């Protein structure tokens, strides 16, 4: 499902989710923030690098402040790897910025003998970042971005970029596009956006693309960040948290209403329209206007309705309840530029968490 703005005033993520679900939310409280018993054990997860900065903070805070007997080991291997390891049953939970489609859910059911569960936990922006501070705030729009990554625009002083940036003194410098070399949910968010917004985009959409020669690949958001930093003229797409942590300059991207917007938490959470999140949690976020930043995505967690022992069930439910429902976890997310779940969406996500191991 595609979630798209129907208003000329704009659309974004988290606060809209608050408005959307609040009308159908019950009076039941979401999962308790304080643990009712001491737990011990290890949780193994793997997947998207998109949320890795905050997932590492989550693990540290949960083991330090909430359940000292529990260790969370999350491996940032990319969304494709997260889906693969989840289906291979080598991890307790998987993570991706691409939801499981109906075909994959059917495959999962055959593998485990019960249904897979997926639920969103975070929202964030995919930024266009640069290695050179002189490009901070450079305005780009979807067709220009598409042309850059297709190597149709190869220099910063290209007339198409100059027309968008009359106040910039653009250098005669080759653009070095940096992309993900692994199966990536960030790539999925980025290419789904371009496939929708740029008429000249020819590389399709999904977790991988056939990038042209003259581009550089990097593994994970970490690898793309390094590629941007290490190459003169480097430009790449990374999660906003990586741009913040590494103090990288970023572009202002023209949204569906023609407004050039920089990737800030406020631009990700601005909500002047109502978004409907389907019960399946299968959706893309497109058509963002107003003051909203247009390249935005979600991170999903995958778990199972059966197959865990009682302790692993308790660990998974406790950890993801805390990560999605608690004020402490929400604050950790916003500090790194992520938008946590809106209050209206939290009960729906909690209901999905409560399904873990429910068919055992």
TrEMBL record:
GO terms for biological process: phosphate ion transmembrane transport. Residues 1-25 form the signal peptide. Keywords: Phosphate transport, Signal, Transport. The keyword Isomerase does not apply. Residues 34-324 form the PBP domain. Gene3D superfamilies: Periplasmic binding protein-like II (3.40.190.10). The keyword Cell membrane does not apply. PROSITE patterns: PROKAR_LIPOPROTEIN. Pfam families: PBP_like_2 (PF12849). GO terms for cellular component: ATP-binding cassette (ABC) transporter complex. One of its GO terms (molecular function) is phosphate ion binding. Belongs to the PstS family. This is Phosphate-binding protein. It comes from Rhodoglobus vestalii.
């Amino acid at each position: 499902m595609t979630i798209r703005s129907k208003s000329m005033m704009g659309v974004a993520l988290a606060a809209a989710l608050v408005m959307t679900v609040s009308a159908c939310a019950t009076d039941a409280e979401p999962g308790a923030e304080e643990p009712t018993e001491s737990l011990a054990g290890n949780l193994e997860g793997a997947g998207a690098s998109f949320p890795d900065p905050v997932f590492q903070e989550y693990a540290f805070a949960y083991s330090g402040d909430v359940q000292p007997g529990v260790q969370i080991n999350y491996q940032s291997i990319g969304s494709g790897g997260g889906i693969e390891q989840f289906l291979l049953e080598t991890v307790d939970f998987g993570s991706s910025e691409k939801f499981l489609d109906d075909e994959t859910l059917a495959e999962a059911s055959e593998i485990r003998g019960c249904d897979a569960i997926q639920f969103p936990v975070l929202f964030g922006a995919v930024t266009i970042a640069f290695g050179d501070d002189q490009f901070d705030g450079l305005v780009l729009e979807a067709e220009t971005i598409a042309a850059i990554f297709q190597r149709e625009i190869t220099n910063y002083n290209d007339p198409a970029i100059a027309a968008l940036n009359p106040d910039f003194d653009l250098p005669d410098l080759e653009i070095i596009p940096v992309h993900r070399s692994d199966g990536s949910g960030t790539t999925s968010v980025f290419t789904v956006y371009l496939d929708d917004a740029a008429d000249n985009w020819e590389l399709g959409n999904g977790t991988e693309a056939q990038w042209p020669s003259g581009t550089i690949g990097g593994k994970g958001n970490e690898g793309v960040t390094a590629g941007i930093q290490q190459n003169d003229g480097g430009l790449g797409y990374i999660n906003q948290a990586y741009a913040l942590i590494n103090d990288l300059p970023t572009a202002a991207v023209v949204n569906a209403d023609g407004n050039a917007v920089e990737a800030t938490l406020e631009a990700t959470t601005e909500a002047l329209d109502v978004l409907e999140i389907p019960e399946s949690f299968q959706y893309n976020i497109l058509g963002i206007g107003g003051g909203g930043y247009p390249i935005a995505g979600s991170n999903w967690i995958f778990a199972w309705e059966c197959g865990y022992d009682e302790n692993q069930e308790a660990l998974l439910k406790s950890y993801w309840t805390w990560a999605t429902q608690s004020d402490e976890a929400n604050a950790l997310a916003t500090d790194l530029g992520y938008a946590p779940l809106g209050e209206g969406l939290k009960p729906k996500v909690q209901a999905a968490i409560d399904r873990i191991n429910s068919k055992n």
